[in-house]
Design goal:
It is built from eight helices and six strands; from the N terminus they run E-E-E-H-E-E-H-H-E-H-H-H-H-H. By secondary structure, the chain is an alpha+beta fold. It folds into three domains: 90 residues, Ribosomal Protein S5, domain 2 (2-Layer Sandwich); 46 residues, no CATH class; 138 residues, no CATH class.
C-alpha cells in the first residue's frame, strides 16, 4: 500500500480531569525527522512519544504538538515558611517591647502575610499522564494515517497512469527497433563500401566489425530490462512496506535504460519516443518524492 508522507491529524479529549489536545502533521523528507512541542513537565515522555510516532511513519518531516490542561486546576501543596514566620513573630515582639505598644499577635495577622506560606505544585503521576496522552495521540495518528493513505492512493493512480504510458512507449520502440536496426546496418554497409571502394577487404575482419556495430546499435537488451523494471515497479507498489526509496532507485534504472536506448538507436522516430519516455519518467519521479 502506497502512503504519502504528507498528512495531518488532530484529536482532543478530556481524560481524568485533563483536557488533552494532540496534533500531528508531516511533509516530505528523506528521513524521519521528528519535532516535538509539549509542556516541559512531560519531557520525560519524549522517547515514548517518538517511538509511537515511528510505529506510524518511517519517513517524513514530522511535527507533534501536545497540550495538557488540568480542568480542576493544578494540585497545590501548602507548607509553612517557618524561618520567615519565626523572624516575623520575633521582630513584632521586639517592636512591642521596645516601644511599649499594646496588642497581641493573632492568627489573622499571620494568615494575611503571603510570605508565611510556601505553595508547591504537586508532581503528577507521569505513568497516568502517559496513558492519557498515548490514547489521544494514537487517535491523532490514526487520522494522520488515514489522510496519508488517501493521498497515497491518488499518487499511486497517477504513477500507474504514467507507468502505463511508459510501457506503451516501450512497445512502440520495440516495434520500431527492427526497422531502425536494418536501416542503421544498411547505412553502415553503404558507408563502408564507399570508403573501401577499389581497396582489397579482409571479409572476415569486416564481418567482425559489422557484428560489433550491430551489437552497439541493438536495443533489445535494454527493452527487456525495461519490461523487467515495469513488472518490479508494480510489485513494489503492492508491497505493505514503505516503497518510496525502492521506487526512487527503480526510477533511476528506468531512466538509465531509456538514455541508453536514445544513445544506441540512431533513429528519429525512436528519438521522439525517448523524449516522451523521459517526460513520463520525470512525472513518476516527482510523485515518488511524496511517497513514504
Amino acid at each position: 500500500m502506497v502512503k504519502s508522507m504528507t498528512g495531518f491529524g488532530r484529536y482532543k479529549e478530556v481524560i481524568d480531569g485533563r483536557d488533552i489536545l494532540c496534533e500531528v502533521k508531516s511533509v516530505n523528507s528523506r528521513y524521519l525527522d521528528t519535532t516535538l512541542k509539549m509542556p516541559k513537565l512531560y519531557s520525560p515522555l519524549e522517547d515514548r512519544i517518538k517511538q509511537l510516532a515511528a510505529s506510524y511513519i518511517s519517513r517524513g518531516k514530522l511535527e507533534i504538538y501536545i497540550s495538557v490542561e488540568s480542568i480542576a486546576g493544578d494540585k497545590i501543596d501548602l507548607s509553612v515558611n517557618k524561618e520567615y514566620l519565626e523572624s516575623y513573630i520575633r521582630l513584632l515582639n521586639e517592636i512591642k517591647n521596645e516601644y511599649a505598644l499594646s496588642g497581641d499577635l493573632s492568627l489573622d495577622m499571620i494568615a494575611s502575610k503571603n510570605e508565611v506560606f510556601i505553595a508547591r505544585k504537586v508532581d503528577e503521576d507521569l505513568e497516568a499522564v502517559w496513558t492519557a496522552i498515548e490514547k489521544v495521540l494514537k487517535e491523532a495518528f490514526e487520522q494522520h494515517l488515514a489522510m496519508r493513505i488517501r493521498e497515497g492512493l491518488k499518487l499511486e493512480n497517477d504513477i500507474l497512469g504514467n507507468l502505463t504510458e511508459l510501457e506503451q512507449i516501450a512497445e512502440k520502440i520495440a516495434l520500431r527497433a527492427p526497422e531502425s536496426l536494418r536501416v542503421s546496418n544498411e547505412r553502415m554497409k553503404a558507408r563502408v563500401a564507399e570508403l573501401l571502394a577499389g581497396v582489397p577487404v579482409d571479409e572476415s575482419r569486416l564481418l567482425t566489425e559489422c557484428a560489433v556495430y550491430a551489437d552497439k546499435t541493438d536495443i533489445n537488451e535494454e527493452l527487456a530490462r525495461l519490461g523487467s523494471h515495469f513488472a518490479q515497479f508494480r510489485e513494489i507498489l503492492n508491497e505493505k512496506q514503505p516503497a518510496g526509496r525502492k521506487l526512487d532507485f527503480l526510477v533511476q534504472e528506468l531512466n538509465r535504460e531509456v538514455n541508453t536506448i536514445g544513445s544506441k538507436a540512431c533513429d528519429t522516430e525512436i528519438a521522439r519516443y525517448v523524449i516522451d519516455a523521459k517526460c513520463a519518467i520525470e512525472r513518476i519521479r516527482e510523485q515518488i518524492q511524496n511517497i513514504e
